[in-house]
Design brief:
Cysteine-rich small domain-containing protein; 1 helix; two-stranded antiparallel sheet; Zf-like; binds iron/sulfur cluster; little secondary structure
């Protein structure tokens, strides 16, 4: 097995589970449907997705990510999206998504840098 820093095979960035009875579980995906991030690693963190907020049967506030395609739209694109947002993860506040969506967190001391 090669470390991912030295391999040119990028198969680890995504796959489509064609046998899944729920595929496609999110509408609007334009590229390859990436099932790697089912469930989304950003569920407990601030993110730019179009989630709705609801209260579950235990009284906990949760995200409903039904309308979000960000972790699924293209193997490379969704991989890069998740890596960028996990660089400086910020625990989710439990509040609804903002308009415009929340911006990607910056390293401490660099909050004024423009987004890339
Ligand atoms: S809204 Fe999208 S990016 Fe945010 S946690 Fe849900 S699936 Fe992930």
């Amino acid at each position: 097995m090669q470390p991912k820093d030295t391999t040119t095979n990028e198969g680890y960035k995504g796959f489509t589970n064609a046998g899944c009875p729920f595929l496609p579980c999110h509408k609007g995906v334009q590229r390859e449907f990436n099932c790697l991030f089912c469930y989304c690693p950003l569920i407990a963190y601030e993110c730019p997705g179009p989630y709705e907020v609801y209260t579950d049967r235990n009284g906990l506030t949760r995200k409903d990510c039904s309308a979000c395609t960000l972790p699924h739209d293209g193997y490379h694109q969704s991989w890069n999206f998740i890596q960028r947002w996990l660089e400086y993860p910020v625990p989710w506040s439990g509040k609804p998504q903002t308009d415009p969506p929340i911006r990607r967190p910056k390293p401490p001391g660099h909050e004024d840098l423009s987004d890339d």
